[in-house]
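Budget justification note: compute hours in this period were largely spent on complex prediction jobs such as the one shown. Inputs:
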Amino acid sequence: MISRRLVTFGNALNIEPEFGIGKRFGDMNAAEFWVAIVVRWTAFPWNDTIKTSIALSDGPSLATQVDRNERALNDGQNPTASILLNYFSPEITFALPQYPDYELLFRFHHRSGIFGLINNVHEGAQYATAGFRFHF
Amino acid sequence: MSVNQCCTLTIALLVATLASGITGARAGSSVPNVDSSGPINTDRTETAQTSPAVPPSRAEVRRIDWNGDNFFGPCQGDCSFALYGG
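Corresponding output:
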């Protein structure tokens, strides 16, 4: 996933467009592509101890196929499911103040049809994830 | 934890930190905020010299750091790459 800061309000609130690619493993095999707008808050009183940010991302997500497990989430509501769903991802990051460009990232990778708004789909594949972010 | 609980918790945390950030902001000060934890500010709006008796307007304390002019240019520490899984 790559992103870039577009604008900052009050040295605290960032707007960051994001583009991401994901690949599912295990019982599911689809790849995912998404673009999103990230709203990130960076001004925390403890940033001198551990630099923290929290963010919400939202945008369209396209999967290369509807995996069987994802389709099963919507049995009885829409058996056809949808490869195009909404991507929504709350996130929190931590970094050491002396290394602010290297962040530990925890993100809830969520895809859904926004309560049936998209093709009558309610649920999509989602994951609790962890990883690293590098600023350059 | 369900999805709804997760989102609710995140939004509640965002509201709480927004409130603490506003309380801690230097509203009315002519000195720019030099918090090193924030992004690089290159074209923030300068605050005007005002009399201490006259409170600054909302426009004077608002600071917007627009990076759109350089958005498709070389990265200057404002790009990021993340790799995660779960």
